[in-house]
Amino acid sequence: MIIYKSKLILFFFIILFLKSIVITSQYNQDQLEKEKKQLESEIKKINGLLFSSIKQRKSLITEVEELSIKIDLREKLIKLNNKQANILIEKISTNENKISDLEVELENLKEEYSKIIQKSYRSKSEQSRLMFLFSSESFLQAYKRFQYLKQYIAYRKKQGELIIIKYQELKNLNQELFNQKELKEKIVVENEKVQLEFEKEKNSQNALLKDLKIKEKSYKKEIELKQKKSLAISLEIKKIIEKAIRDSNKKAGKNNFMDFALTPEAKLISNNFIQNKGKLPWPVEKGVIIQGFGRRNHPIVKSAIIQSNGVIISTPKNTIARSIFNGKVLSVLSFKGSNPTVLIQHGNYITTYSNLEKIYVKKGENVTAKQPIGKVFTNPNTLRTDLKFSIFKSNTPLNPRGWIYML
């Protein structure tokens, strides 16, 4: 009895394990499909935003940078398609083995059922069931024979039902296998098209890189100059935030200069801001990330280092920047040689919106989520409309990717 229970428990855990594998596999496939749609959407947006003015000549480095963004996404899409195809190949192989095992099992069941029918027919022709019962020597024997006949009939019925179930299971598996093979072929065809586009863009990039190589030193200086200007703005933003922290603590009679001294209303806004992490709206209605958060080598001029305390979003011309949450305008920064930046305080958090052409808000003004705060500047040389967006906790920069919905 103990051995039987142990086997039953083991069988139960095996079933659970196999189910978890199927669920995980399906989750992986669904997740990959979601990522794939997102990548395709980003490529489409990039084509609309960065490559719609193809007839207008941009600076060489801008062309290479933009092409590099699209190539990176295209490469990710190829890898993702390969992952999907590999998962399907594994599923197809598993199902083919299952089908093979089921076919053997079904044949064995049919053979066994055939023997039962033959035996039943012979029994019927040799003597009737009634005679089999009446020839019993005692009531107990007759009862046992009756039970035997009853169980035999039930077993025969069960075997017939089992054959139907197994046949249906086999039919479903064959259909699933057909669908999987069809989907795999579709992904392979799609990937071939993506690969062709990737190679075409890569060749265009290589041709541009040859021209760029000649003037690499001057381009490096240009990148470093932009980086220097960006760091100067970042330093100015930091000073403004630090001063605001000091002023809030001084007003509250506190000596803490790490965080804002918040009023109950400001604390509520701060808590609501945290609770909406990952669900906050984009600072523009439409856009695509062309530069991420943190320190890295320049994607084209590898010897140049870029440091960003936010993300750069390329957006359509005449786009309006909007506040991502309720708050108060902390400052409107106008830095020499750069376009204005708006700083909005959300309790202990600050969001910044740089490279604005027009400003629609003023310092001290209360703003609501998605309220327009300014028009994003369009660079006449690059033909790009780029918004630099940052999030700070006090004066510490945070990666917006974890805060903004689907960023």
Descriptive notes:
The chain has 407 residues and is an alpha+beta fold. The chain contains 6 helices and 13 strands. The chain has helices spanning 2-50, 60-126, 129-134, 139-214, 216-252, 264-275, and strands at residues 288-291, 294-297, 305-308, 311-315, 320-322, 327-333, 341-346, 349-354, 356-359, 366-367, 372-376, 385-393, 396-398. Strand 2 (294-297) and strand 3 (305-308) form a beta hairpin. The longest helix is centred in the middle third of the chain and has 76 residues, at 139-214. The model is unreliable at 1-5 and 10-24 (pLDDT under 50).
**How many angstroms separate the termini?**
58 Å
Which stretches are low in confidence, meaning pLDDT under 50 for 5 or more residues running?
A: 1-5, 10-24
Which percent bin holds the helix content?
55-70%
- According to CATH, the homologous superfamily of the largest domain is Glucose Permease (Domain IIA)
Task: Report the average pLDDT across residues.
Answer: 79
